[in-house]
Design goal:
- This protein is α/β, with parallel strands linked by helices and 336 residues long.
- The two termini are 24 Å apart.
- It is built from 13 helices and 18 strands.
- It is globular, with a radius of gyration of 22 Å.
- The structure holds pyridoxal-5'-phosphate.
- Keywords: Isomerase, Pyridoxal phosphate.
- Its cofactor is pyridoxal 5'-phosphate.
- This is Alanine racemase C-terminal domain-containing protein.
- GO terms for molecular function: alanine racemase activity.
Length: 336
Amino acid sequence: MQMDMADASSSSLEEEFRLAQRSSYLRIDLEAVLHNVRVLRSLCSSHTEVMAVLKANATGHGSVAIATHLVNNGIKHFAVATAAEGRDLREAGIQVYIQVFGTSHEDVDILQKFQLTPTVSTPAFLRLWATKHRNANLTVPPVVIKIDTGMSRHGCQPEELQQMMKTSEELGIPVHSLMTHFAVAWEDAEVTQCQLDLFLDTVRPYREQGVKVHVANAPAIIRGFGADLDFVRPGISIYGLPPGDELPVVGRVSMDAITVKMDASFTDLSSAFYVYSDVISHPNSVTNIARALGTIPQEVCSRLSARLPRVYVTGGRHHVPGLRNGHLRHSDQRSW
Ligand SMILES: Cc1ncc(COP(=O)(O)O)c(C=O)c1O
């Protein structure tokens, strides 16, 4: 692992160390996150809305702080991987639309209680959803129906959509939107175009009736696949990390403590260093670290230890959510 030297001013670094109360912490620039969302949004049609994907605790960055900042800046739609992730956002006071990608029958109580929108692939789930709400004398809330156009992970087959729509109508379940997910939007334009064509063909009759549709993750937005539909769903690209000079690690890595070799030009032993660089070509960019480990950037970020405080930076101010009288509350430590 290489390290980069920080370029932040020493007074703001002192403030960060004071807040984190640890010599190692994660510095998360909320303005950079917002900037990235806005850049991605600028690549879409004017009517297209952003649904920010905050899976895996916002890929390790802390979903509550990220969601709060985005809500305060006009983002009204979020998606998470599990019902428990959605519950964490609701318990932290996020009141806007939250879609859960990985919906299972066991989650239905949490989905109902916290008003989370399920992603549905089977008539059996539609029946369960309707029954659950009818039994409680509640109006049945909307669902998102997912169509598998080649990712082969979740979703009904294109030829099953008609039955899914019919069942939803019979059970009085509003359909918020129809979606699919691209398998290789960055790597393979031909496959992605085929997935998009199949999706648009499949949903055409319902789109004509006003049902909303969405397909694009961040790579697809950048490549221009489905960035003109009703929503886009960027994930990993909304998080960015900063650059600097490289220093070699010496000795053993001990959990979140490491030793780096500084040359004679470094005289200030209190210098701070970035572990990950936001310049994709740097050896310590998340992308290159993931490549070296044989994994994907999402995994590198979401494995960042919950022990490391997240210091959020916005408008020149720093804060660590959950610090009460200088200590983390137990529940905050859990949800990080
Ligand atoms: C259904 C769905 N949409 C969007 C995304 C965001 O993808 P990306 O991080 O490539 O932008 C994900 C992430 O896993 C996903 O599962």
